[in-house]
Amino acid sequence: MNSASAELEHAAVRSGHEPVRPDRLRGVMSRFATGVTVLTVGGEHLHAMTANAFSSVSLDPPSVLCSVGHSAVMHGALTGAGRFAVNILGAHQEPIARHFADKSRTLGAAQFERVDWRSGEHTGAPLLDDSVAWLECELTESHAFGDHTIFIGTVLAAGEGGTGDELLFVNGRFGKPATGS
Predict the structure, then answer these.
(1) Measured between alpha carbons, how far is residue 46 from residues 23, 40, 115, 153, 176 in Å?
(2) What is the pLDDT of residues 78-107, one digit of tens each?
(3) Residue 150, beta-bridge partner list
(4) Nearest CA to 154 among 170, 171, 141, 167?
(5) Residues 6+ apart with CB under 8 A from 55
(6) Which entry of 54, 67, 96, 180 is 20 to 30 Å from 148 by CA?
(7) 11, 34, 46, 86, 111 from 55: Cα distances, Å
(8) DSSP structure class, residue 28
(9) Does residue 52 surpass a pLDDT of 80?
(10) What is the pLDDT of residue 7?
């Protein structure tokens, strides 16, 4: 158990409550619909990872955050590269989301062989063709907590691409926004 987890457990005990079990938290959080992104880094650290732990942080300075597990290949790749891209996926890109979420896929340049992309002008990170939007970021800060690190990036460039509905993830399934009534 790391020091952050130990502190949370001690706080729960002091308050007279049992700590929330990871499976319980996972179940509750699965009810929160999120967008789906693919984080990418370029150069010698070429790698991609599907992620939904992503959010804007600030408009001034323009910044976003993503949360990456310490054991993920992306953790070392992002730390080593210092720059990254965020590809916001459309509903039609579910196969891409599944591909980059597959831990058994071949890593390195081979993981991009069946995916159309271009190198970001500011980061060299892959910008996936037909994504509904993308951001290029410079790693500004990182905060280790529990079994993840929160990476904060200053947005260097942003753009919109493909059209259509965004890809969502809720209750352990991919989907698209429901049309209004």
Answers:
(1) 32, 7, 14, 18, 29
(2) 999 999 999 999 999 999 999 999 999 999
(3) 67, 143
(4) 141
(5) 64, 65
(6) 96
(7) 27, 10, 23, 11, 25
(8) H
(9) yes
(10) 59
**Residue of higher predicted confidence among 133 and 22:** 133
From 165, 149, 139, select the one nearest 64 (Cα to Cα).
139
Domain-wise residue ranges, the chain: 1-31, 33-170
Identify which of 164, 167, 169 has the alpha carbon closest to the alpha carbon of residue 93: 167
- Taking the whole predicted model, whether its pTM rises above 0.70 is answered as yes
**d(Cα 62, Cα 47) in Å, to the nearest integer?**
24
Report whether 166 contacts 176 (CB < 8 A): yes
The secondary structure of residue 165, as a DSSP letter, is P
pLDDT of residue 34: 87
- In the 8-state DSSP scheme, what is residue 61? T
- CATH code of the domain occupying 33-170: 2.30.110.10
What b/e readout covers 12-30, taking b as 16+ CB neighbours within 10 angstroms? eeeeeeeeeeeeeeeeeee
DSSP annotation of 103 reads T
